[in-house]
Amino acid sequence: MEKHIQLVGILNIAYRALLILVSLILIVIAAGFRHLVELLIRMAPGDMRDVPYEILDIVPVVLLTVALLTFVMSVIGIVAGAGVLTRKPWGRVLMIVVSFFTLLRIPVGTILGGYSIWVLMHDETIRLFDATRTPG
Description:
By secondary structure, the chain is mainly α. The protein has 6 helices and no strands. It has one domain (about 1-130).
């Protein structure tokens, strides 16, 4: 089970690092969304008047919200992954909580979240993490 625990920590840190990169890209897209749409409209046949202006105001806000939530959850996931790798009991609990949210990210997040929960809820894993806890 030691190798599974280590794999859960490493895979979660790598997955979260990738999600941080994605969230930064989304922030850049949100910042330049209106200019991007205007550029695409100039290249395509049509007129800017055909695009509802509400979309130009709402989409960047939605992108920014998704990006910030992804960024925050990814940082929490990296902290949890580090805690799992160092066999901290709080790292195991935090990773279980984060893994439940990860289940919603179909398909990779579902696989990773399910695997992480399976490993971290295993009786042997619980004993390993309890053994590292210092009394008092």
